[in-house]
């Protein structure tokens, strides 16, 4: 375990032997004996948890260092949280894309009854999920805009158009850059068709890693 130069008395990092696993970081509570741990793999937070037990913390860090799978780390250190999406990322990008689509749709459905923009975003996501060229990409929303990326880790790649629901019930298709407007559409179907028509050549399926990895 190495101290972190930014705050050597309160933070430390543990380097992993697994390619793509960033060092996991340990943060020590400022007012009480409490330890937080976080670990990224190819731009995705897979490891997280908080404990006051230094022994548990050491077992979790050792598991991350040695390449243990998430459930193995959790078995050795039960304070570790393992989400469905984290396990999907661990199985590979195709699994991560599948689970992310389902969780995105479920989340939007929970909000659609209360928020008009959520209803519009849900309609977009449902139609996009039925389009094979978009279903293979990793989806996410930001301020109700529906985005698609060719990588499953953050920072995401901005190489695919996205759709903004408008408050008048229409849709604006933009991208790939944030300030480029492709056009506006009266219907969900028209908006999704505009996205598909503007996809870059040989787009998808989404791969593990980040936009930085794609550039590198």
Label this structure with key terms.
216 residues, alpha+beta, 5-stranded antiparallel β-sheet, 3-stranded antiparallel β-sheet, 8 helices, 10 strands, 38% helix, elongated
Topology, please?
Layout: E1 2-3, E2 11-14, E3 24-28, E4 35-41, E5 44-51, H1 54-66, H2 70-76, H3 84-91, H4 93-112, H5 116-129, H6 132-135, E6 138-142, E7 145-149, E8 162-165, E9 171-174, E10 181-185, H7 188-197, H8 211-215
Antiparallel strand pairs: 1-2, 2-3, 3-4, 4-5, 6-7, 8-9, 9-10
Question: What would you note in describing this structure?
Answer:
There is one protein chain. The chain has 216 residues and is α+β, with helices and mostly antiparallel strands. The longest helix has 20 residues, at 93-112. The chain has helices at 54-66, 70-76, 84-91, 93-112, 116-129, 132-135, 188-197, 211-215; strands spanning 2-3, 11-14, 24-28, 35-41, 44-51, 138-142, 145-149, 162-165, 171-174, 181-185. Helix 1 runs antiparallel to helix 2 (70-76), helix 3 (84-91) runs antiparallel to helix 4 and helix 4 runs antiparallel to helix 5. A hairpin with a 6-residue loop joins strand 9 (171-174) and strand 10. A five-stranded antiparallel β-sheet has the order 1-2-3-4-5. It contains eight helices and ten strands.
Biggest beta sheet attributes: 5 strands, antiparallel
SSE pattern, N- to C-terminal: EEEEEHHHHHHEEEEEHH
Write down the overall mean pLDDT.
92
Radius of gyration: 20 Å
Beta percentage is 15-25%
- DSSP summary, beta strand count: 10
Terminal Cα separation, in Å?
Answer: 28 Å
């Amino acid at each position: 375990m190495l101290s972190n130069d930014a705050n050597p008395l309160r933070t430390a990092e543990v380097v992993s032997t697994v390619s793509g696993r960033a060092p996991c970081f340990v943060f020590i509570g400022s007012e009480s004996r409490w330890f937080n741990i976080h670990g990224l793999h190819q731009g995705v937070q897979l490891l997280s948890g908080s404990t006051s037990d230094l022994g548990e913390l050491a077992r979790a860090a050792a598991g991350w260092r040695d390449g243990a799978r998430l459930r193995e780390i959790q078995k050795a250190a039960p304070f570790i949280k393992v989400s469905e999406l984290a396990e999907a990322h661990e199985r590979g990008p195709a699994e991560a894309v599948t689970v992310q689509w389902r969780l995105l749709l479920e989340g939007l459905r929970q909000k659609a009854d209360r928020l008009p923009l959520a209803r519009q975003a849900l309609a977009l996501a449902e139609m996009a999920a039925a389009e094979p060229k978009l279903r293979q990409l990793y989806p996410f929303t930001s301020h109700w805009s529906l985005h698609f990326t060719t990588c499953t880790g953050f920072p995401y790649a901005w190489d695919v158009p996205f759709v903004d629901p408008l408050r008048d019930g229409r849709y604006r298709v933009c991208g790939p850059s944030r300030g480029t407007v492709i056009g506006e559409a009266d219907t969900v179907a028209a908006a999704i068709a505009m996205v598909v028509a503007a996809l870059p050549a040989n787009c998808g399926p989404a791969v593990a890693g980040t936009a930085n990895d794609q550039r590198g």
